[in-house]
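Appendix B: complex inputs.
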Amino acid sequence: AQRVTQPEKLLSVFKGAPVELKCNYSYSGSPELFWYVQYSRQRLQLLLRHISRESIKGFTADLNKGETSFHLKKPFAQEEDSAMYYCALSGSYGQNFVFGPGTRLSVLP
Amino acid sequence: DTGVSQNPRHKITKRGQNVTFRCDPISEHNRLYWYRQTLGQGPEFLTYFQNEAQLEKSRLLSDRFSAERPKGSFSTLEIQRTEQGDSAMYLCASSLEGAGAQHFGDGTRLSIL
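Resulting structure:
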């Protein structure tokens, strides 16, 4: 069965420090992987997807099929990065969409 | 376009009542998704539509839950005979393509008294 795990419920880092939010998945087949973000009092929104290989707001994520991971990274965290981050997956046609439980990132001044 | 719109923003009702939520997707989006989110959890997928066709409904939480998208535009989610455990945020999202970015609404918060 498809599943997304995010082991950290809360991650606190200091401004300027590197940050890595972990995401592991299980899926039979080739999933599409996404990171969604929800800033305080805002809607859930797409941050990035693995297929586009973009860097958004300095964040990158590499799909590691061997380790079934899709960790989100940023070399220098900013206070405005504080938010709730959700890893998600779907099948190639958008079916079987699953979100992880989320990690709250807190960037301290 | 103001994005995905959901109404009402908050619904308070007594246990046993029926409730209906509405979602208006971004106009050119043919995919529409419904999710439930409880405190401390990620969104839980319920069902989705491609135009007016409901492609997945096995993950609706019980037979008390049903969804429609009659003309391939707006959608409604109905919960019959509400129970305390139905209290949650109900989110709607739309996308242009199958595995494309989903655009979320603000959600409807359901509170069961």
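The radius of gyration of chain B is 13 Å.
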